[in-house]
Here is the input.
Amino acid sequence: MIKSRPALSIPEALSIDKQHIWHPYSSINAPLDNYLVDTCKGVRIKLKDGTELIDGMASWWSVIHGYNHPELNAAIHAQLEKTAHVMFGGLTHEPAIELAEKLINVSPDGLEHVFFSDSGSVSVEVAIKMAIQYWQSRKQPEKHRLLSLRRGYHGDTFAAMSVCDPETGMHHLFNEVLAKQLFTEAPQCKFEDEWRDEYIADIEIQLKTHHQSLAAVILEPIVQGAGGMRFYSPRYLQEVKKLCEHYQVLLIADEIATGFGRTGKMFACEHANISPDILCLGKALTGGYMTLAATLCSHEIAQTICAGEASCFMHGPTFMANPLACAVSNKSLELLFNNDWQAKVNNIETQLNSQLAQCRDLPNVADVRVLGAIGVVETLAPVEMAKIVPLFVEEGVWLRPFGNRVYVMPPYITTNAELFSLTEAMHKVLQKM
Here is the structure.
């Protein structure tokens, strides 16, 4: 029998955590210290020991409206009174219907069908399966491989790992058991660079050489996230779209990190004014409240898949279109559009440009770049997580760098003063490092 236990002290709770819980990309042989959270509200994380931190990560880029938002809370409570979950096979519900309609209305033109899933990685799995099943239905089963960009990151499940960078990415240990995909060089053009045709030379060669076996190109539009926080030219995306159309290869846009305003456009594809054939969404979809993702596609793709051998799309997660998650997503989208998200993101961009500029003079800094509500300070050498995170906590902020990127992606409700605290902490800590 399992009994409830008395409340744990902070040391007791952290001891159990360290002994038994695996955190993301962590080692049980040399576990990092974790911080015990008590409550979160607005942009502040309050630890169990009373320490208060300004969150510069938006909980891995998802909590765009801040924590414990009264309207998001109310949306979940109202749906909870009706039903927390119901299977989506043979049944449907209003939150999913409303959300699908909203996503179609705000997403790039031509995307008419929505498939809900559990997480960003699964939305990529769904997109890859859509592309492969599409060509099978068109009697071209040889078109089953993907072309991906080096430095790309698309998730941690198996098909998603197969299109992540096979050498510099996080998943090279699995290369021998992953599907063998094709890769082209990472975009060499920065966001503001003057265009040169040589920037697409390699992907053009790849498509010309391999288009007969390619189902789709998959990429993160404009911003390569976990692969280095690299911002590339919208013209590159425009040219890739043209090449995909010319060589009859689908284009999958992974907007899990960039969707819902993060780059200053509702979707990063809008910087290039293009529409992908398939679009992956997640992270900020629910305002960071629950796990939910969506994969959108054109009517032609959906119709072709369903006219094929299987007569349906072959995927169906148990918790797809969870009513609670759909309800809070609907409210999150309302908040986004009713509270002038673009002005908020533009203000964050202006302040980041101004305040992170001082980091350029530090001897250990290689580059500083800003796009929308993303600010990146790239260091000459990788930072030591065990040293740098506690220094940020001492400064009263929550930032979690990776590799040689110290970056900030705050909630859109972050005030000027709170953002100043984040950028000052970045400068001060990098001086110490």
Q: What stands out?
A: The radius of gyration is 22 Å. The chain has two domains: 10-68+340-432, 73-338. The longest helix spans residues 120-137. The chain is about 35% helix and 15% strand.
